[in-house]
Design goal:
This protein is globular. The strands form four sheets. Strands 3-2-4-1-10-9-11-15 form an eight-stranded antiparallel sheet, covered by helices on one side. The protein has a seven-stranded antiparallel sheet with strand order 5-6-7-8-12-13-14. The N and C termini lie close together (11 Å). It is 34% helix and 23% strand. The chain is an alpha/beta fold and 604 residues long. Helix 3 (105-114) crosses helix 4 (126-136) and helix 4 (126-136) crosses helix 5. The protein contains 16 helices and 25 strands. The protein has three domains: 3-240, Aminohydrolase, N-terminal nucleophile (Ntn) domain (Glutamine Phosphoribosylpyrophosphate, subunit 1, domain 1), CATH 3.60.20; 250-444, Rossmann fold; 445-604, Glucose-6-phosphate isomerase like protein, domain 1 (Rossmann fold).
Length: 604
């Protein structure tokens, strides 16, 4: 999703902005730009495509002293990815960058055009800078004009604005889209939409709350709340570890992140397992008092992790569990009862639709819990309780280790709730905990496994589509396998419950239909096997993933013999991730930044 950076200081502003934007590339973008106000004059550059194009345009430009600079990577919402639509957007003497969507931009734009303003872009963002300059004509100060402008905007936004009338100032506002400011011992000010661009530059950061707006100068950080009341910045220490953001010799970040899953799951488990119970020190047991239902709400990959959790909560915790797609839930006038624990799942903690459902649940008086990878994110700050997945920085747009750690957390949480509700005996909980300890071993990628899948991938580059099929908890894994493949290979893929094939989809079966069949030894094996045989009888090309060899398969990927179906789940997860990776690489695609996608989806 769109990324923002800003800098106020005396160093090489161009380099700081471009380096910051590089740290946000993983979020996905289609154009980029910077604007620098130095000695009362603006220099600005925009480019479509990768940041290298912007770097090429700015190669002969350098800053020499104190400057105020803003930069942006854009993921198109209003208007196509063109240079004119790229940020920053220009008024007569001001520039603005913006993440989010201004919902009332059409009305504002109509009024501004009637006042004689000429628009250059198709974006909603451009109205901000023109509205600001309109207000500047009637307000006593630039800050008053900025505050008035922000009050006239509806929607989600993180905004940085610079103007010639206050050449030593950057104005900011935040509502529904993440942004933070960082400082260092030299008094410099850095802005960004996530932590990573600030690492190495700042020691302390302030995470803005919804409704915050204000300005920074060389000597001051002024923050005001939604009511215009000045508030103190609340700074926290910024981690300085960038090692996990490097590729470490892997071809793609996604490949590195698949290999990292053993280590990050160990981190997820650390300190949370005793011999007979799950330990979540971050949860007050009263969170579950009076709870008769768990409602899980998420989007995309996180939704698949939530679906996996729904099987575990009902099987182990014996509690009614419902599942919601956030983008649907927030618009359907749902019935929300206070005996429901509302759980949202998000890698970033900023996913717009999921965040809005969390706000709905809070407003309805429900207890809320977030499963998230990013501390201090919007969801973490808003929910009653939080469990961090500890997956570390995930730069590949197609999520891997975030999914793995989310499912791991949910497996633990289902046992935690089972202990509270006495729905599993002590011996069974102890057995499950011993299985949890084995996950890191089962997700280690062996050279033999990776080479097998690499060779296999060349047979699956064409055809009219893929079916990923599984039963029970392996159905959401099938959905996730199909999503990974379509995200990075651009091949059509669908996930189905194995038993549903005969209710319509089997009509597509022929040699050009590739079926990836998940056949766990310890869960509904014979049932699932018969579903695959139905496809085989209709000449579908079949790749079976299982511990047990299957003679009717065209291809067979053997996982190790496991003690439990959940360990089979994690081994099969590795296989479908690697298969998607290798197919995509053979097709020559940019695995880390697939077309049309963004890492953190902060628009609806």
């Amino acid at each position: 999703m769109c990324g923002i950076v800003g800098y106020l200081g005396e160093k090489n502003t161009k380099k700081i902005l471009l380096d910051g934007l590089k740290e946000l590339e993983y979020r996905g973008y289609d154009s980029a730009g910077i604007a620098v106000l130095e000695n009362g004059n603006f220099s600005y550059y925009k480019a479509v495509g990768k940041l290298v194009n912007l770097e090429d345009k700015t190669k002969d430009y350098e800053t020499k002293g104190f400057a105020a600079g803003i930069g942006h990577t854009r993921w198109a919402t209003h208007g196509k990815p063109t240079e004119l639509n790229a940020h920053p957007h220009l008024g007569e003497s001001s520039y603005v960058v913006h993440n989010g969507i201004i919902e009332n931009y059409a009305n504002l734009k109509k009024e501004l055009i009637a006042d004689g303003v000429t628009f250059l872009s198709q974006t909603d963002t451009e109205v901000i800078v023109h509205q600001f300059e309109k207000n500047l004509k009637s307000c006593a100060t630039a800050f008053e004009a900025f505050g008035k402008t922000i009050s006239e905007l509806d929607g989600a936004y993180a905004v940085l604005l610079v103007t010639k009338s206050e050449a030593d100032t950057i104005f900011f506002a935040k509502h529904g889209s993440p942004m933070l400011v960082g400082t260092n011992k030299e008094g410099e000010k850095y802005f960004a939409s996530s932590d990573t661009p600030l690492i190495g530059h700042c020691q302390d950061v302030n995470y803005f709350e919804d409704g915050d707006f204000g300005y920074v100068t060389a000597n001051d950080i002024a923050i005001f709340n939604n009511d215009g009341v000045k508030k103190e910045a609340v700074f926290s220490a910024l981690s300085q570890n960038k090692l996990s953001a490097q590729k470490d010799g892997y071809r793609f970040f996604m490949e590195k992140e698949i290999y990292e899953q053993s280590d990050v799951i160990s981190d997820t488990l650390m300190g949370r397992l005793s011999d007979e119970k799950i330990i979540f020190d971050e949860l007050d047991k009263s969170l579950f008092d009076g709870i008769n239902e768990i409602k899980l709400c998420a989007c995309g990959t996180s939704y698949h992790a939530a679906m996996s959790a729904s099987y575990l909560f009902e099987r182990y915790s014996k509690i009614r569990t419902s599942l919601e797609i956030a983008s649907e839930f927030r618009y359907r006038s749902p019935i929300m009862s206070k005996d429901t624990l509302f759980v949202v799942i998000s890698q970033s903690g900023e996913t717009a639709d999921t965040l809005e459902t969390l706000k709905m649940a809070k407003k309805a008086g429900l207890k809320t819990l977030v499963i998230c990878n990013v501390d201090n994110s919007s969801m973490v700050r808003l929910a009653d309780a939080c469990i961090l997945t500890r997956a570390g920085i995930e730069k590949g747009v197609a999520s891997t280790k975030a999914f793995a750690t989310q499912v791991t957390v949910f497996w633990m949480l289902s046992l935690f709730v089972a202990k509270l509700r006495n729905s599993l005996d002590t011996n069974e909980i102890a057995r499950q905990i011993s299985l949890l300890r084995e996950i890191p071993t089962h997700v280690k990628v062996t050279d033999e496994m990776h080479e097998r899948i690499k060779r296999l991938s060349k047979r699956y580059l064409h055809g009219h589509g893929f079916f990923f099929i599984g039963r029970d908890v392996f159905f959401p894994l099938a959905l996730e396998g199909a999503l990974k493949l379509k995200e990075i290979s651009y091949l059509h893929a669908e996930g189905y419950p194995s038993g549903e094939m005969k209710h319509g989809p089997i009509a597509l079966a022929d040699p050009e239909l590739f079926t990836i069949a998940l056949l766990p030894e310890h869960l509904h094996y014979e049932k699932s096997k018969s579903n695959v045989e139905e496809l085989s009888a209709r000449d579908s090309t079949i790749c079976v993933i299982s511990a047990i060899e299957f003679d009717k398969a065209d291809d067979f990927v053997q996982i190790s013999t496991c003690q439990d179906y959940m360990l089979e789940f994690f081994e099969m997860m590795i296989v479908v991730q690697l298969l998607s990776l290798e197919i995509s690489i053979r097709l020559g695609n940019d695995v880390d930044m697939p077309r049309n996608l963004a890492k953190s989806v902060t628009v609806e």
